[in-house]
């Protein structure tokens, strides 16, 4: 699979851009486990053009993360064009436009998935961005706004025709948010549309290697995008690649590997953001890193209430003593 001149191999795996999740520390953790393409957290076009510090900081990445895309969102053509130019100057491999975020603080401003109710504006924004930058432009979106408005098959054609070089589709409508089960039927129809030549990347509820393989076999997508299934579970990429290539499932990671990876994640986060911020933001990941262990709740509570890295290290010591297999 290729996006522009970016060679990604057969059935590549993408780490979905997630606000307050896919920061440089988490991307650094996921990359060695087999992520083929990553993205920054999504960035407000208005924030970028106003030089807001939080937005500018999201442009930062390291060379080891390549290939990497910068994802932007907004609803004004001029702002999106300027944001795309600023993003391109940061040196990513591509620009991705978010037309799928369902949260009210984004859709309420006419951005993200809200543009699924205004296809002409979506196309206008996209075409202007494509013309403004000299690197590939891709799209991440949803099936539609609601069950009665799911234009994705035709929309993918329209986006292709104005220069988009790949499309990632989440198998829910905006009104579903993240509830229920994602429906990949229209993702499959989009991929199998004979007019569509650009890669189609499927997204939604990829939480295990077996689910990933089933989606590839059933719907024929070019690649898979993993979002929430990777939180506190970066080895999911290794497990998916292994199952696809060998037909065999890997054993789950040991407690030793879980501790080592979690420790590395915290240390990477501290390097970027400092101890206080890192310990707070890592709470989103702690539960999943040690999910499934019997009587894990007291340890998890200690992790989410830790006041220092030393406190975390003591929890790790106790976890290794309690759950290591001789």
Helices, strands, pairings?
Elements lengths: L1 E2 L2 E2 L5 E3 L8 H7 L7 E2 L3 E2 H5 L3 H5 L10 E6 L3 H13 L4 E6 L4 H4 L11 H14 L4 E6 L9 H10 L5 E4 L14 H7 L8 E4 L5 H11 L3 E4 L9 H11 L8 H19 L1 H7 L1 H7 L7 H8 L4 H15 L3
Parallel strand pairs: 3-11, 4-6, 5-6, 6-7, 7-8, 8-9, 9-10, 10-11
Antiparallel strand pairs: 1-2
Helix pairs in contact: 1-11, 4-6, 7-8, 9-10, 11-12, 11-15
Key terms:
326 residues; alpha/beta; TIM Barrel; 2 domains; nine-stranded parallel sheet; two-stranded antiparallel ribbon; 15 helices; 13% strand; globular
Give an overview in words.
Helix content is 44%, strand content 13%. α1 (24-30) packs antiparallel against α11 and α4 (77-89) packs parallel to α6 (119-132). The protein has helices spanning 24-30, 45-49, 53-57, 77-89, 104-107, 119-132, 152-161, 185-191, 209-219, 236-246, 255-273, 275-281, 283-289, 297-304, 309-323; strands spanning 2-3, 6-7, 13-15, 38-39, 43-44, 68-73, 94-99, 137-142, 167-170, 200-203, 223-226. It has 326 residues and is of the alpha/beta class. The relative contact order is 0.11. It has two domains: 8-246, TIM Barrel (Alpha-Beta Barrel); 255-323.
Classify the helix fraction into a percent range. 40-55%
The CATH topology name of the largest domain reads TIM Barrel
How many domains comprise the coordinates?
2
Order of helices and strands: EEEHEEHHEHEHHEHEHEHEHHHHHH
Q: Structural class of the secondary elements?
A: alpha/beta
């Amino acid at each position: 699979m290729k996006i522009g001149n970016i060679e990604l191999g057969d059935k590549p795996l993408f780490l979905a851009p997630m606000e307050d999740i896919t920061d440089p520390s988490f991307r650094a953790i996921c990359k060695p486990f087999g992520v083929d393409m990553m993205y920054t957290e999504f960035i407000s076009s208005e924030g970028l053009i106003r030089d807001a510090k939080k937005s500018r900081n999201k442009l930062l990445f390291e060379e080891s993360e390549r290939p990497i895309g910068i994802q932007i969102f907004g609803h004004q053509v001029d702002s999106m064009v300027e944001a795309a130019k600023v993003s391109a100057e940061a040196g990513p491999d591509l620009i991705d436009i978010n037309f799928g975020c369902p949260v009210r603080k984004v859709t309420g401003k006419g951005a993200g998935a809200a543009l699924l109710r205004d296809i002409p504006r979506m196309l206008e924004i996209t075409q202007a961005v494509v013309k403004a930058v000299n690197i590939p432009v891709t799209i991440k979106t949803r099936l539609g706004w609601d069950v009665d408005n799911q234009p994705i098959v035709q929309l993918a054609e329209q986006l292709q025709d104005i220069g988009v070089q790949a499309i990632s589709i989440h198998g829910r409508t905006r009104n579903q948010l993240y509830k229920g089960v994602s429906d990949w039927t229209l993702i499959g129809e989009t991929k199998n549309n004979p007019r569509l030549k650009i890669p189609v990347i499927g997204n939604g509820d990829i939480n295990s290697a077996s689910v990933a393989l089933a989606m590839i076999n059933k719907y024929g997508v070019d690649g898979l995008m993993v979002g929430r299934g990777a939180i506190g579970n970066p080895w999911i990429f290794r497990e998916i690649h292994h199952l696809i290539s060998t037909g065999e499932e890997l054993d789950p990671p040991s407690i030793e590997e879980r501790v080592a990876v979690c420790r590395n994640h915290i240390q990477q986060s501290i390097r970027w953001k400092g101890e206080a911020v890192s310990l707070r933001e890592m709470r989103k990941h702690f539960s999943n890193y040690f999910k499934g262990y019997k009587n894990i709740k007291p340890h998890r509570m200690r992790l989410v209430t830790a006041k220092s890295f030393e406190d975390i290290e003591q929890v790790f010591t106790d976890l290794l003593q309690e759950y290591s297999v001789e």
